[in-house]
Amino acid sequence: MNSASPGPGITSTCGGCNLSENYSNWYYFEITNSGRLYLDIKPEDFFEDYDMALYQASNCASLGNPVRCTYAMTPQYCQPTSTGTSYYISRVRFNTIDNTSTYYSDFYANYTTSISSTVTAGNAYNLQVTVVGNNMYVVAWFDWNKNLQFDSDEYYSLGSGNNTTLSTPITIPVTARLGKTAFRVYTTRGGSVPNTNACNSYANGEIEDYAIFITDGTHCSNNVRDADEIGVDCGGADCVPCDASYWPTNTGMNSTSTDYSEDVTGDSWVQGIPVNAGESYYLMVNNWSPGANGFDLVWNFTEGGAMDCSIVVPVELIDFEAKLLGQFTTLYWETASETNNDYFTVMKSTDAIIYKPIGSVDGAGNSNSIHTYTFDDTEPITQTTYYRLKQTDFNGKATYSEVKVVSPNVPSSVQQFNVFNDVNEKNLNITLIGYPNAELNYAIVDVMGRIIKQGKINIDENALGGMKLSTNDIAAGIYNIVISDGKYTAKKKFVIVK
């Protein structure tokens, strides 16, 4: 099953797992034959972080606590740091990537979720890195086998120089795992980082990570799901299935785990569950950011287990868009069929968490023909705004659409934003690049939406800003840091472990 996570919704707990939804999707299914259930949640995007909770319940009103859940963070590449404001990477070019930057306070920049380029297996591309400083050495790693590690045989040296641009051709191996992966650029002063030390920290340098999507031009790697594909990002001449041994699944339930729930420090896996005929379940899959690329749900039953996931969908929504026309937003949506549909409510939010109704449109009741709807939001858009539809049946039951995002035609004061939790110094390092001499507001918010700390951050005349916040008085857990200039809001997740 291929799906996505529009959300948001409820809050629930399960042992160490605290699920406060951001962007989620819900599934209802019934067990027809007793057995044991396992589940793989495979993200379409290599770097997206999904969580899951499984509830045994007959209806939404009686959900209670989940019987299985994991809140673990998705595996990530190691994040070395460096020092020295006179020695850094100022520009990286690779195929369509062309990124100019200065440096963050810890001299590590992760661009894998924001900067990417598509490359073709067997082709060569020139990697160019511009460095600031004298006697600078540049090396790079490309994670060709997508094992979330930069191995010694994935290493390239670009040479050394003084305040210069260094380059080397990179040929994409025909044996490289297709789909999305990452490469790392590492510069240091006075000597090259060894090929086995991609995770080591060195003084006087900088580290930057980027994403690439590798294609071989066939239907198995064209970034589009085809009818004969099984799993995500198949790869291989005959589109081999993507089982758990071949693809680093984000999270799920397997046969080897012994825990029923886990917090952010877990391994993303919990134990499969015994199921009995006649039982019904709700599955919630949660993602931390809007606009994600979705995921595959791979259901695995053993010991004779089986399920019935058929359900009557009240409205088959085939299109939903929010378009900014001048200062105002017009929403369009189209249905292919409607069953017992009373009306639509247009919901609006400026933080992607709290939605308020701004109007309603009558539904078609029961219909098997296409119906088109529009709604005009007459309030001017001054900041990033989120819209979704609430569809209500004649019996009062409601479902929600995916979220659409509209941004005003004005620039944000925040161009780049990074946060690093220094567990040794017990500090949270916040670094910004934005409009010179801008004053911004920050807030640290827990998973329940409560503000833990807030204050001001200034960007200097060189377009750089940042600060260190002590984490001594912040309890262990998952938090968001929210940066706002009054019109735009940027948010990043971080974890405090004590």
Outline, from the CA principal axes? globular
Secondary structure: helix percent: under 10%
Mean pLDDT: 81
Structural class: mainly beta
User: How large is the count of helical segments?
Assistant: 0
> What's the N-to-C terminus distance?
38 Å
Can you walk me through this structure?
The protein has strands at 2-3, 11-14, 17-20, 23-33, 35-43, 50-56, 68-70, 88-94, 97-100, 108-110, 116-120, 124-132, 136-142, 155-161, 165-171, 179-189, 205-215, 251-254, 261-262, 269-271, 273-275, 280-287, 295-302, 306-308, 315-325, 328-349, 356-367, 371-377, 385-393, 398-400, 404-406, 414-422, 427-434, 439-446, 451-458, 464-470, 477-484, 489-496. With 498 residues, the protein is an all-beta fold. Strands 25, 26, 27, 28, 29, 30 and 31 form a seven-stranded antiparallel beta sheet that branches. Strands 1, 5, 18, 20, 21 and 23 form a six-stranded mixed beta sheet that branches. A six-stranded mixed beta sheet has the order 19-7-6-22-4-24, with no helix packed on it.
Defining key terms:
498 residues; mainly beta; seven-stranded antiparallel sheet; six-stranded mixed sheet
Summarize the model shown.
By secondary structure, the chain is mostly beta strands. The protein has strands at 2-3, 11-14, 17-20, 23-33, 35-43, 50-56, 68-70, 88-94, 97-100, 108-110, 116-120, 124-132, 136-142, 155-161, 165-171, 179-189, 205-215, 251-254, 261-262, 269-271, 273-275, 280-287, 295-302, 306-308, 315-325, 328-349, 356-367, 371-377, 385-393, 398-400, 404-406, 414-422, 427-434, 439-446, 451-458, 464-470, 477-484, 489-496.
